[in-house]
Amino acid sequence: APVWCVVPAAGVGARMKAGFPKQYLKLQHKTILEHTLERLLALPYVAGVVLALHPDDDYWTTLPISRDQRISCVDGAVERAGSVLNSLTWLEDNGHSDAWVLVHDAARPCVTSDTVANLIESVRRSDAVGGILGVPVSDTLKQVVNDNRITGTQDRSKLWQAQTPQFFSVGLLKRALQQALDVGLMVTDEASAMEFAGHQPLMVEGRADNIKVTRPEDLPLATFILQQQAL
Ligand code: CTP
Ligand code: MG
Q: Residue 1's pLDDT is what?
């Protein structure tokens, strides 16, 4: 089955406080969104990209990559899960119901081809419904209640940080996301919707440098990672 990419890029980047959406900030003379899309489009097995943009986005068409015929744009939604759902609807409406998708945050420009290939291969070798990239948690995690009083410590050995891409079949993922949104579940990634539907997606170890650019202090870090990867 062909592999498509879904790239949610309809967020406003509130935590970045840049005055405009963070995916249009430049790292090494290129916007974060261009870095991300170029890396996905360089994967030889990717058939195309569905890009979810804010309905009022004025920046996208100013980028040369917006003329790339392999990219199709859809309107995003107020929540990330809704932006992904709109993208999956586009795939179904355009005859790609049988495809598999790599859902990948626009805000993760440092993703590498080897980790994505390993995700796909690991899922195909397994009997899991799909899988995601992640890394084991390295900090000790505390449970706190009101007034920041610590009431417990999590067993870190069982905890991983979820990243993207997250790799699932279009049909299963769309149904799971719809179902999760219908019951008002907090859906911050694709796997959580699949878990809610009763599935157990595979966790595939990725790289710690696949960061999500979220806060101002992530910008010099992302620049450094891109420089290191180019060596
Ligand atoms: N995203 C989206 N639609 C939304 C919200 C987020 O497509 N309604 C996208 C973002 O553009 C980003 C990815 O989902 O590429 C991960 O979200 P996040 O890092 O939270 O980005 P923002 O929501 O833009 O940032 P913030 O939460 O700080 O406002
Ligand atoms: Mg957000």
A: 77
Query: How many domains would you assign to the chain?
Result: 1
Percentage of residues in the chain with pLDDT exceeding 90? 99
Q: What is the CATH number of the domain that holds 139?
A: 3.90.550.10
* CA 14–ligand 1 middle distance (angstroms): 9
- Kindly report, residue by residue over 79-89, the tens digit of the pLDDT: 999 999 999 99
pLDDT above 80 for 151: yes
ipTM over 0.85: yes
Q: Name 120's Cβ contacts closer than 8 Å, sequence gap at least 6.
A: 3, 45, 102, 167
Measuring CA to CA, which residue among 220, 222, 189, 198 is closest to residue 208? 222
- 85 Cβ below 6 A of ligand 1: no
- Which of 23, 105, 188, 217 to mutate to test ligand 1, by most ligand atoms within 8 A of the CB atom? 105
Closest ligand 1 atom, residue 8 Cα: 7
Supply the range of the domain harboring residue 62: 3-230
Residues in the chain: 231
